[in-house]
């Protein structure tokens, strides 16, 4: 079974940069599985900034919905980095997809990969209870997805100010 | 003196499930001290979901206000799990009770328990400063309660994606 | 080169009290570099509460903008505590200053200090994405400042419920 690592943390805590450096450690090349969809200019700018940081050693795959499929298709070679689970969940919820079932499918897919998988996700439950019901539902769903994926991953780190803190560690030398 | 453990973390980070598993470790039975009050359907659903997870090895005690008293009454036998301090604080603040004085009372009660106590609380200060003054006051109060209870507890863990990270550890083998 | 420590954490997580105790460890005296500006009564009350805790072993310097300069001027003697970077960033952003350039200047200043520097900052990215564009921009800026300063500091800790968790540690015995 390939190594799997979940990197969680707050917004702008350095999760993606950390995931990128881990992804390139093994073969010097990596596959970037992007879940982001640019719905507006702000999101476009954020995606462009992330892409600017990655060089020619990266191959990019778009997977706003079919994340498990993208992992299966890209397995067997270089490490994959999934950026990020929170946007993937957002996409699924906005299109009324069965995000719980798809998360379970993702769990089984991660467990059977042979090449490494590094998944980025967000901590969204550390603030005051949101006044907005939709925000509370999303917060609950994101927390459930994080716990469910963390359970199947060999290692989990919390990223703080750009540095990893060990949450769970079986197979990754953090 | 009995062991005391404070479990803190964001919403849906797996704090309650973690507390439940620790509570059952010693005798295989435990007492659940619930501070939640169902004010609306959303809260009722959340309480019901938590109850569904607990089996017949649990005895439930309701203590939305008199938490120290519930600990004293239930002492001497199985471990107790308090779920959670943040809702208890909410109840006290909404009824204009002296939550600082009651927290000090709780500190003294925890320090004199003979059976283990596991307390669940929430991290609510990790987001942007709330625009709402009441939310800022609650955030300040919750942070103060967490620090005050953490000082008296033998161990403190931060729960992230279902896993405990050691914050302070004297007597609990996390 | 002097020791440098960044203390991050949520609101009311005990960061300032922790920084104060570290600052007094070396010589029993310390310099408090305050970035806060009292714009309203709530802020005044918060500043007054922080001051009340500090005794005559403290010298206070106000530096809402010229933080690098305050460090240079106060170098060579007792440890300095900067409280906090998040308010400093707020001041810079509100006055349309070049906060990125000033952060880079601060990085170089920290790297050349001879007396210890302890910097307090805030985790603000752990909640739901704010609906307000200004809040999102601030959150992004604060995360970038935290990462940038963390890189130059010898040690970084995350404060939870009053206790430090090691994030990065080169030279500080946390």
List keywords for this structure.
P-loop_NTPase (chains A, B, C); 174 residues; homotrimer; alpha/beta; Rossmann fold; 43% helix
Element layout with pairings:
Three copies of one chain form a homotrimer.
Chain A: E1 4-9, H1 15-25, E2 30-34, H2 41-53, E3 58-62, H3 67-74, E4 80-83, H4 85-94, H5 99-111, E5 117-120, H6 133-152, E6 155-160, E7 163-169
Parallel strand pairs in A: 1-5, 1-6, 2-3, 2-4, 4-5
Antiparallel strand pairs in A: 6-7
Helix pairs in contact in A: 3-5, 4-6, 5-6
Active site (chains A, B, C): 50
GO molecular function, one term (chains A, B, C): ATP binding
Pathway (chains A, B, C): Cofactor biosynthesis; adenosylcobalamin biosynthesis; adenosylcobalamin from cob(II)yrinate a,c-diamide: step 6/7; Cofactor biosynthesis; adenosylcobalamin biosynthesis; adenosylcobalamin from cob(II)yrinate a,c-diamide: step 5/7
